[in-house]
Amino acid sequence: MSDTDDPSNRIAYLGPAGTFTEQAAVLFAGEHAGSEFLPYPSITASAEAVARHEADVAIVPFENSLAGAVGETHDLIIHQLDLHIRDELIIPIEHCLIVAPDADTSEIGVIYSHPQALGQCQRYLNRRFPDVRTEATLSTAQAVARAVELGDHVAAIAPRRAAHLHDARILEFGIEDDHRNATRFVVLAHEDHKPTGDDSSTILFTTANRPGALLRVLQHFANADINLTRIESRPARERLGTYLFLIDCDGHRTDPALANALTRMEPDLQQLRIIGSYPKAPRN
């Protein structure tokens, strides 16, 4: 893995226009002049475009402050594609209830949205629409397109930009269950980022099958005074009860403290892979 901070001009993202992922892509493109936006129908398709060199980077959702890890993204990086995280972005999430411009909303029968958005508005849905069916779409923007196409008695949950793009009507603003709701997006590329002095790293590992192995691995981070900001376990897809661990920590993989800690923990590891080191995004 090598370091780079070269501009990334072809940006793949979960489309169509109007998604939160597009918002993250626009934010990332602000630092890279002349960017070309390439919408794809799914998270997987966006990442695969980078793997095939159709795009330089892919912007994909990684975790949400309410709903947790985005499983599709995690499985892609862990099991399917040899890509690395080279940047991260934090986007505040505001969901709106959206309908067609002239829709009859006296009795809404179905609400469309991306599964993550539905999960982030679950309490609102239980309170306002306890008997209304929800249906998942590939993106929040697709949900608005579906609502506009179907018209009466149908609604979508999506960002306000999606409503504006489809000339739809917003019935309610800010329907997310927690107004502190935010999604962390990562930028996937073939290479990660060079050190900036304020970095994070994402590391994948499996421990040896013996008592105390995980404890000893984590202790190496503590001994080196390295802060762990997240730890996630994912099925190893081998046999029941075998798991991989994905951690986020402060520091760059080339920092002596982190590099030495990783070396010291090797006897307790079966697998170690650095998914990427990248500039730390501001947390509000």
Please explain how this structure is put together.
With 284 residues, the chain is α/β, with parallel strands linked by helices. The chain folds into 3 domains: 3-92 and 181-193, Periplasmic binding protein-like II (D-Maltodextrin-Binding Protein, domain 2, 3-Layer(aba) Sandwich), CATH 3.40.190.10; 96-172, D-Maltodextrin-Binding Protein, domain 2, CATH 3.40.190.10; 199-279, Alpha-Beta Plaits (2-Layer Sandwich), CATH 3.30.70. Helices cover 28% and strands 35% of the residues. The chain contains 9 helices and 17 strands. It has helices at 20-29, 43-51, 71-80, 115-120, 122-128, 140-150, 160-165, 213-223, 256-265; strands spanning 3-4, 10-14, 36-40, 57-64, 68-69, 84-92, 96-99, 110-113, 133-136, 154-158, 169-172, 182-189, 192-193, 199-207, 228-235, 243-250, 269-279. The strands form 4 sheets. Strands 2, 3, 4, 5, 6 and 12 form a 6-stranded mixed beta sheet that branches. Strands 9-8-10-7-11 form a 5-stranded mixed beta sheet. Strands 15-16-14-17 form a 4-stranded antiparallel beta sheet, with helices on both faces. Helix 8 (213-223) runs antiparallel to helix 9 (256-265). The protein starts with a strand and ends in a 5-residue tail after the last strand.
